[in-house]
Amino acid sequence: MMNILFQKCFPESTAAPLLCSAPGRVNLIGEHTDYNNGFVLPMAIEFRTKLALSLRKDKIVHVYSKNLDKHAEFHLTDNFDPSKQQWYFYIAGVLQLLMKQGYATYGADIVIASDIPMGAGLSSSASLEIAAGFAYLSAHHRPIDPIKLAMICQQAEHHYVGTRCGIMDQLIASLGQEQHALLIDCESLHLKPIPLNMHQVTWLICDTTIRHQLASSAYNIRRQECEQGAAAMQVNSLRQANLAMLTTYKTKLSPNVYQRCHHVITENERTLKAAIAMQNQDWLTLGKLMAASHRSLQHDYHVSCKELDFLVDQALSIPGVYGARMTGGGFGGCTINLIQDAYLNEFKQKITSYYQAQFSYPPKIYQSKPQAGVKLAIPEIAIEHEF
Ligand code: ADP
Ligand code: MG
After folding, report:
1. Nearest alpha-carbon partner for 110 in 71, 147, 62
2. Is residue 315 located within the same domain as residue 377?
3. Is residue 246 part of a domain?
4. How many domains does the chain have?
5. Are 214 and 359 within one domain?
6. What is the DSSP letter of 280?
7. This prediction's pTM
8. CA of 376: how far to CAs of 134, 149, 260, 293, 371, in Å?
9. What per-residue confidence (pLDDT) applies to 216?
10. Of all residues in the chain, what percent carry a pLDDT higher than 90?
11. Residues 332-352: pLDDT tens digits?
12. 3-state secondary structure (DSSP) of residue 92
């Protein structure tokens, strides 16, 4: 399919394009901790960004997105102003940084098609960056350390798109493993694959389909509040803080900053406990940690919204549900739910009808096992979409 699309877009290109795909991700626990040098526990999902790329002899890049049905053209030495907010800046940033750092030389013809819903908190952006960077380097026959690639893609998102994201999304798109979640220490960048034996349990993603405008401004404010908290407690990042310190410094922190720090410190603890529970297939404990994570995001970090809270509250009242929480940045997007297989159909029916009754439109429901990170070739997986 990507081959045919590429031929259609670039009929004059003679060589067969290089094919590659990178996954989206769902964060199982450890939310808003990555940019605080903390712990996160995501898994790569079955939705992928697929990309076909062929190098050119000049420094021009042509890119076509099937999702947007849009073409873009730029020169590798152009200036990209983040305030202009163009969809192709994700790709331009990655390619230009790779060129500036001496990994690559040539322009490219690129076609992309993704089945990751955009802006849903399943990280279509990092998936696009990693797929583009990986294909571009592979075409140049330039291997790169996958962690280094993730860091360059994160830089692209910071400086070309203007989102000061953490490193989680790029790392999991680069290094996800089948049948594993990845416990990431965002300070040392040490990665620990955690086996996820999904015997009789399933991860289900419920998408509110809501995207609140507040998300990006609130994200930057949260980052600043965390930095203020760390500075007041005289540590480099909240990773070095603990609850005892937080109590000691409480009078020096504004109520908001205290709450944000409380979330991050307790979320780091929950994430480490969750990795152990996962390893032991102790779904009950894992589920309780997920629910506690949601309450902390709702009441301490204030990044939830009524649609997410509704989905979590209802999910936790349905039989066979071990745990539920919002996932991703918040203010819309998705929840992640851990459910006993025997109750799966009942859950899907109930959550859809409850949500529909409350908001007059249905949620979207996606199901996924943990998948591999970026790779050459495009797997033909039947993806379960349910609406
Ligand atoms: P998320 O990463 O949660 O999906 P973001 O807002 O970070 O949400 O990234 C979404 C943006 O990434 C889109 O608005 C678009 O600019 C870009 N993007 C992602 N995938 C594609 C694609 N297949 N084609 C074009 N642009 C894409
Ligand atoms: Mg993103």
Report:
1. 62
2. no
3. yes
4. 2
5. yes
6. T
7. 0.95
8. 8, 15, 40, 36, 14
9. 78
10. 91
11. 999 999 999 999 999 999 999
12. helix
Annotation marks residue 309 as catalytic: no
Are residues 245 and 233 in contact, defined by beta-carbon separation less than 8 angstroms?
Answer: yes
Going by alpha carbons, the residue nearest to atom 20 of ligand 1 is: 124
Q: Are residues 143 and 218 in the same domain?
A: no
Alpha helical stretches, state H, 44-167: 89-100, 124-139, 146-156
Q: Which two tokens stand for residue 25?
A: 């991700």
| Distances 89 to 66, 72, 115 between C-alpha atoms, Å | 16, 10, 20
**Which atom of ligand 1 is nearest the CA belonging to 163?**
7
Q: Which residues line ligand 1 (CB under 6 A)?
A: 49, 65, 67-68, 87, 90, 112, 114, 118-125, 128
Scan for tokens 């994201």, then name that residue: 165
Q: Ligand 1 atom 25: the closest Cα is on which residue?
A: 65
Q: How does pLDDT run across 216-247, given as a tens digit for each residue?
A: 788 889 999 999 999 999 999 999 999 999 99
**Sequential DSSP letters for 236-253:** SSGGG--HHHHHHTGGGS
Strands 18-29 and 375-376 come out as antiparallel
Nearest to 123 by CA among 110, 114, 132, 113: 114
Q: Is residue 72 assigned to a domain?
A: yes
Quote the domain boundaries for residue 62: 2-28+42-194+373-381
Burial of residue 273, with CB atoms counted within 10 A of its CB: 0-12 exposed, 13-18 middle, 19 or more buried: middle
